[in-house]
Amino acid sequence: MNKSDENGGRFAYEGLDRLMHEKARLSIMASLYTRVEGHNFNELKKLCSLTDGNLSRHITVLKQAGLIEVIKGYEGNKPNTVCRLTESGRERFKSYLTELEQVIRDAAAGSIVETVDEKRGFSPA
Amino acid sequence: MNKSDENGGRFAYEGLDRLMHEKARLSIMASLYTRVEGHNFNELKKLCSLTDGNLSRHITVLKQAGLIEVIKGYEGNKPNTVCRLTESGRERFKSYLTELEQVIRDAAAGSIVETVDEKRGFSPA
């Protein structure tokens, strides 16, 4: 890539960390972001429409990456596993969201280009 | 999943079509969305910071899905392959963007919860 080109990487969205960008993990992160005290396994399953297996797998990935913590406790007599964002997880998700907002802004700018281009027409040389 | 739970799937983001959500393809779609007449292969490579191989592979996927069209033409004497969104591709990307906006809105609501939760504190029973 020619780094001297000022538009180089303009749409690369390097801030879209693949770890959080994966759809199921984005669901989990967004659920937990909106609730500081976290959610238990069954709540997350419902909120994200995930199967037991899928949810377990993605929780493991997010935990290993230090984005969430998993707290094993009890609700009455029943075991209750609660997931919540770590401080670093919350910060990293915020950065991820900032990049998502950039995608939206770029697209909004695109709607303007659309109008301009109608005047120009399309000529593939 | 208990479908009677009104929060069921609240964070599932079913509208995040995996075809467009994949990071490199999201880059390509966003680049093309902002320019109705499309971009040629080299422009896309730069804008999205992708290698030849990666770009080719993702263009094929997007073309097969009917999201983009690939127009082989000439610029002077040199072959010039231009990619642009199909009408359906533009519509589908718009729907995708609507769902992205929902993620941002949910997160913004989350910042409020954060403040409320500080008062509540965390008690894993």
UniProtKB/TrEMBL annotation, chains A, B:
Winged helix DNA-binding domain boundaries: 25-104
Source domain of life: Bacteria
Cross-referenced InterPro entries: WH-like_DNA-bd_sf (IPR036388), WH_DNA-bd_dom (IPR027395), WH_DNA-bd_sf (IPR036390)
Annotated protein name in UniProt: Transcriptional regulator
Organism expressing this protein natively: Candidatus Thalassospirochaeta sargassi
